[in-house]
Amino acid sequence: MPTATYQTPTSLNAGLRCRCPRCGEGKLYRSFLKIADRCDNCGLDYSFADPADGPAFFVMSGVGIIVMALWAWAAVVFQPPIWLQFATVFPAMIGGCLACLPPMKAWLVAEQYQHRAEEARWESVGGHGEGGFTYDRRGVSNRRAAL
Ligand SMILES: [Zn+2]
After folding, report:
1. Is 39 left (phi over 0), alpha (psi -120 to 50) or beta?
2. In a 10 Å sphere around its CB, with 0-12 CB exposed, 13-18 middle and 19+ buried, how is residue 107 labelled?
3. For residue 138, how far is its CA from the centre of ligand 1 (angstroms)?
4. C-alpha of residue 21 to centroid of ligand 1, in Å
5. What's residue 5's pLDDT?
6. CA-based nearest residue to 18, from 9, 30, 27
7. What distance in angstroms lies between residue 8's CA and the mean position of ligand 1's atoms?
8. Per-residue pLDDT for 41 more than 80?
9. Chain mean pLDDT for the chain
10. Ligand 1 centroid to residue 73 C-alpha, Å
11. Confidence of residue 59 (pLDDT cuts 50, 70, 90)
12. Which of 37, 50, 56, 120 is 20 to 30 Å from 84 at the Cα level?
């Protein structure tokens, strides 16, 4: 059975273009920030994609720092009236965040895909007092057998 090969883009490339992290061609979103069920080009199932609130945090922090730095500089140098400060800073904050959210979320989804990041799965390795690590238990049992 032939398997398809894809020219996988870098995570930054796929993120900035909001494209599929595997083929780099299919759309990642079906609406503004709503991730599609699967890639319309290669069929990659996007159910693994869950960047949670990471994109919002990074965008809010980055845009906030840049806009506040520019606002502070302009307020000192030009001393504009307060209405002008409100009329420019709030739209810059809101517009900057809305513009940066889709590519940031797509970038984090591409990073999840390329690094196979997923939620941790726990496995029981025994009861209390047995060490808790599978490699420790195997090493202990091997040492006991040798004694
Ligand atoms: Zn794809």
Report:
1. beta
2. buried
3. 42
4. 7
5. 85
6. 27
7. 9
8. yes
9. 86
10. 44
11. very high
12. 56
pLDDT tens digits, 85-137:
999 999 999 999 999 999 999 999 999 999 988 777 777 666 665 555 554 44
- For residue 83 the two structure tokens come to 């209405």
Ligand 1 center to residue 13 CA distance, Å? 13
Report the amino acid identity of residue 33: L
pLDDT of residue 114: 92
- What tokens were used for 27? 């759309």
The residue assigned the tokens 């690094």 is 115
Which of 4, 12, 1 shows the shortest CA–CA distance to 113?
12
CA of 23 to the centre of ligand 1 (A): 4
Compute, in angstroms, the gap from residue 63 CA to the centroid of ligand 1: 30
